[in-house]
Amino acid sequence: MFVKNEAAIKVGKYLVVADVHIGITKDLWQSGVSLPSQVKVMANRLNKLKKLTKTTHLIILGDLKHKITGISVQEKKEVPEFLRMLKFRKIILIKGNHDGFVEKLTKNIKKVSVKKSFAVGNYIFTHGHRNVTTKKKIIIVGHNHLCVKFQDDVGAIYNEPVWVRGKAGGRKIIIMPAFNELCGYYAANRGKFNGPIASKLKGNAHVYLLDGTDIGRIRDLKVKE
Prior knowledge:
The chain is built from four helices and 14 strands. Helices cover 18% and strands 29% of the residues.
């Protein structure tokens, strides 16, 4: 299921990633950080993962675009460009909180379908910023951009992107790390998770590095403020 060393999973014929955030480089530029467009880089990463996992379909688990309100000039150009570069037969876009008006950007790309949630077998995929009514046993969300913070003996802090897996209300909940490494991280071992689904998880939920290492329960990974 988990693709080793990648923020991605495979479920049947589907490759799944979360939080792509096309257009984020504009916000970074406005903050004084100048980076080239990441469209080609991320499209190439996904196409390589398609080949590696032998999948034919793609699920983007919310936040394809970055701007929350409206559509930026950059997104108007880059979102369709990005989607057309992808070599998947079908792309399911689960609408996230950053995906306002995304239908305007995808309406001319026949292989793209926009949905609030999407079920495959025992799994239901939803971005995580709102609740979902389902009988499925496993709920997979993004939205949180999770990392774990490690602090060494001299006070240096390191961030590593992570998966979180736990149970709540008789269902398994999996929180995916962000696919776009530029969109920032929230520490899994500090505070609460974002969204009505992820926030149900308690301190006994387990944290996994991208290579699959189980580094323990959230409550055992607290760092000093």
